[in-house]
Amino acid sequence: MADWLIGCGQITWPRDVAEEVVLADIADAGYAGAPIGPKPATSAADRSALWERHQLLPAPGYIGADFWDPNKYAAIIAQTTSYAQFAREVGVDACYVAANVDNSKPVNGRTRMQAAGHVTPADGLTDAEWTQFIATISDVAAILKTHGVRAAFHNHVGSFVETRAELDRLMTAVSPDVLALGPDTGHMAWAGDNPVDMVKTYASRIITMHLKDVDAAAASRARADKTDYRGAERYGVWTELGKGCVDFPSIFATLTQAGFAGWLIVETDVTQLATPLASALQSRAYLRSLGM
């Protein structure tokens, strides 16, 4: 675990909270860093300086895109090139890449946000869309690589790569030399699949990871009611690490055996606690209880 860096994602804090406050909370909670991304009209040097002021290291950022849509290809390539240049300047060597959560493309009579957590094969992309997805994300990974940044694919409920079957299809289609994996434990659990088994299968391919926990009862209720993504969040599907159903000790044992080195990013998308800081503190305390 000596080469593991524990970061905290900013997603728990409402968007109207000042970034300075969010970073200060993350630092106060005892994390080594936080994901970094570009900001309009702000230089990479200024972004790095902000992290430094809070004694935080820059952790991998995120690119979400409609990789299946050929009409979006040019914009995706431009977005990737811009981010790759930024990442190189701030010293980040990995980037999460994920299919956008989708509430605009109806499939099987519903969008993927509506199907969140209770996906069927009929909710998936067509073969032609899969072909476009694979080609585009391979090009994205290649661009990042030319800037010294590895692309780590990220599974996400509400997107077209939510289930284990969908993740396996992508990982089988794209070489590990091209596309690494940056999985999300909570999204895999909410999808109804086993995050421990996922990590065991792909341990050698994982270069970073989002650590999320899920309240199994809330996920089961949302699945039974066939509620949408936001509805499941209102049921309390997200919880702090160690309070849900994800078996983190087994996951960390697998990563240790595989010689993992890199960032582990704690995220609780929506907390039931009084404040985001309380959430960050609780998850950090749990990881410390495991020797991290």
Brief overview, please?
The protein is of the alpha/beta class. It has one domain (4-289): TIM Barrel (Alpha-Beta Barrel).
Account of the 3D structure:
This protein has 292 residues and is an alpha/beta fold. The protein has one domain: Alpha-Beta Barrel (TIM Barrel). Helices cover 42% and strands 14% of the residues. The strands form 4 sheets. Strands 4-5-6-7 form a 4-stranded parallel sheet, with helices on one face. Strands 1-11-8 form a 3-stranded parallel sheet. Strands 2-3 form a two-stranded parallel ribbon. Helix 4 links the parallel strand 5 and strand 6. Helix 3 packs parallel to helix 4. The longest helix is centred in the middle third of the chain and has 20 residues. It starts with a strand and ends with a helix.
Distance, first to last CA: 7 Å
Count of helical regions: 11
Q: Which runs of at least 5 residues are low in confidence (pLDDT < 50)?
A: none
CATH hierarchy, class: Alpha Beta
Topology, number of strands: 11
Strand order of the largest sheet: 4-5-6-7
Radius of gyration: 18 Å
Strand content: 5-15%
* Helix content class: 40-55%
Q: Which helices and strands, and how do they pair?
A:
Layout: E1 4-8, H1 19-28, E2 33-35, H2 44-53, E3 57-59, E4 61-65, H3 73-90, E5 94-99, H4 127-146, E6 150-153, H5 164-173, E7 180-181, H6 185-190, H7 195-202, E8 208-211, E9 213-214, H8 216-225, H9 229-235, E10 238-239, H10 248-258, E11 262-266, H11 276-289
Parallel strand pairs: 1-11, 2-3, 4-5, 5-6, 6-7, 8-11
Antiparallel strand pairs: 9-10
Helix pairs in contact: 2-3, 3-4, 7-10
